[in-house]
Amino acid sequence: MAKPWIWAFLGAFLVWFSTIVYTGGTGAGAILSAALSFATFSVIVGIGQMYVITLGPGNVDLSIPATMTFAGAVSMKIMDTQDPMILPGLGIALLCGTAVGIFNYALIRLLRIPPIIATLSSSFLVQSCAIAYGRGLKIKPPELLADFTTVKIAGLPLLALCVIALAAIMSVVLHRTVFGRSVLAIGQNPRAAELAGVKVGFIRFATYTQSGILAGLCGYLLAGFSGGASLNMGAEYLLASIAVVVIGGTSVAGGFANLPGLWGAALFMFLLVTMLNTFGLSAGIRLLLTGVIIVAVITLAGGRRNNH
Amino acid sequence: MKAFIPSSRILRSLLPAFSLTVLLIAIFYLQPRTMSYMGLNLLLNLALPIAFATLAQMCVITVNDLDLGIGAFVGFVACVGATWLNDTPVLGAGVLILCIAAYAALGALIHLRNLPSIVVTLGMSFFWLGLALLVLPTPGGKAPDWVRAVMTVKTPGLPATIYASVLVAILVHVALMRSAYGVVLRGVGGNPRAVERAGWSLLRAKMTMYSLAGFFGVLSGISLIGLTTSADANIALRYTLLSIAGVILGGGEFVGGRISPVGAVLGAITLTLAGSFLSFLRISPDWQIGAQGAILILVLALRVLINRAGSK
């Protein structure tokens, strides 16, 4: 398994190719451009989720959708369509994410409960806050933010380019910094990592907080991209954030992460939906096939056991 | 001296009953009219399907997995129940049996390929939702008369839901907590390697628990349409989170195969009542989910306190 991420890109290419064969070549570029735009959001939350999953079995952040919705709703309300408020709005969104991340870790630590339960319980609370706060209002994002999230340079979405850079940076952080290597070490063997002097508690805290921050960022950008925050805007990112990690070649047993794979998997997921839509299938068949293909891909991609 | 202080283990197992009692007293205090046959019946109307879904989730949690597709599955069963089971009972029953077999196969797949149950079951939730939409594209259908009759039967003394819940809780308790194979099944969650070395098949145990989960999922869907009389693909999507919350409230833990069937049923009833309690308090429905989260965190915190007191 030298380059596990190859498969994700190969899958994405195959799905894209079948789509344009079906359409007779029309829209090939447009589909790819749209795929880049939408995959961006899965990649942002995927990065946070990947670090969390790399911490080892049982580590997963289920509060990502709620955090996205909450950060999106709060930041849109604070900015109130005013361009000068874009940066403060971003700050607020990141702060929302940070708060949820810290709260998640506090629950894990203080109540000594598995992260799945901690992040699930906190997501209930956060979702309620988002509903109560953003009820019945659809505030448009500031024009500048909407432009930034949708503008394309030579057919390539600017936001996608930024997130490609972000993924590259996070890849360096993972493999070249003390923080990233500590995350990998904890995932491979928490006891050995602790004995080797890794501050396990602090690294886990930082990882959950980072996931919250990225979810906040994603909620902010997605609200800008889709013309405002909505109460179910995060819903599909529960599956997406976990699926891109697993399909992208990151080990679900922890300790091995793979950043390029996130992009391949995110493109694959979007192109898959596009393909099923292009084929003109009914909603029922589309959902059914999505489920079948996801389970099949996970079975093929995620079943590799680590021999260590 | 020690004999007079209940152990933390007993305190913990009493916690679900305690939470439910507190909630019931609060509801009776706020709305004394609920303290009647009719009132209890209305309050607990939807408790049974939720209790079945919670038991299904508990079976999966026993082997350290999590089922994020149970809500969609219950929805699919409801759709089959309101269409095929009514029109062509043999076909309907056959499909439902296939569903249970599908759950067993899911358990086998997750075990053999060492897959994360969260992702597989989340993927399956799309599958079930898609199937449900194919069976019943628009809300409707009709529950079979016998299901309707069973679910609306009037029992003397207390509403039927209460008798049914007690019966189910006792049956599952005996099967999982008191039987020899039940110990093996729970052992799979506690120490799979030890169970395997003792000569038991892990694969068989996982398939058993998953098919039990499928079985309870079917019961949940069928009992649900007995109450609602018609079905809809999205009818039970919220059961996924409710069932997980119910298991935790009932004292189940996510690792180690520590479960409590009686607690899970109590937890499901507590969650059913929590909604009514909040509306009696005139709390906006916006906070319904949040209140469930808060209750969960509160109960988990109480559990930590009890554990800490017990370890002193």
Short description:
The complex is a heterodimer of chains A (308) and B (312). By secondary structure, chain A is mainly α. Chain A is built from 13 helices and 2 strands, in the order ααααααββααααααα.
What does this structure look like?
The complex is a heterodimer of chains A (308) and B (312). With 308 residues, chain A is mainly alpha-helical. Chain A has one domain: ABC transporter involved in vitamin B12 uptake, BtuC. Chain A is 74% helix and 1% strand. Chain A has helices at 5-23, 28-54, 64-79, 86-111, 115-133, 143-150, 158-176, 178-188, 190-195, 200-225, 237-247, 259-278, 283-302; strands spanning 152-153, 156-157. Chain A has a two-stranded antiparallel sheet with strand order 1-2. In chain A, a hairpin with a 2-residue loop joins strand 1 and strand 2 (156-157). The longest helix of chain A is centred in the first third of the chain and has 27 residues, at 28-54. By secondary structure, chain B is mainly α. Chain B has one domain (2-311): ABC transporter involved in vitamin B12 uptake, BtuC, CATH 1.10.3470. Chain B has helices at residues 8-30, 37-43, 47-62, 70-82, 84-87, 89-112, 117-135, 145-151, 160-178, 180-190, 192-197, 202-228, 239-249, 261-280, 288-311. In chain B, helix 1 (8-30) packs parallel to helix 14. The longest helix of chain B has 27 residues, at 202-228. Chains A and B meet through helix 4, helix 5, helix 11 and helix 13 of A and helix 7, helix 13 and helix 15 of B.
Topology:
The complex is a heterodimer of chains A (308) and B (312).
Chain A: H1 5-23, H2 28-54, H3 64-79, H4 86-111, H5 115-133, H6 143-150, E1 152-153, E2 156-157, H7 158-176, H8 178-188, H9 190-195, H10 200-225, H11 237-247, H12 259-278, H13 283-302
Antiparallel strand pairs in A: 1-2
Helix pairs in contact in A: 1-12, 2-7, 2-8, 2-10, 2-11, 2-12, 3-4, 3-5, 3-10, 4-5, 4-10, 6-10, 7-8, 8-10, 11-12
Chain B: H1 8-30, H2 37-43, H3 47-62, H4 70-82, H5 84-87, H6 89-112, H7 117-135, H8 145-151, H9 160-178, H10 180-190, H11 192-197, H12 202-228, H13 239-249, H14 261-280, H15 288-311
Helix pairs in contact in B: 1-14, 1-15, 3-12, 3-13, 3-14, 4-7, 4-12, 4-13, 6-12, 8-12, 9-10, 9-14, 13-14
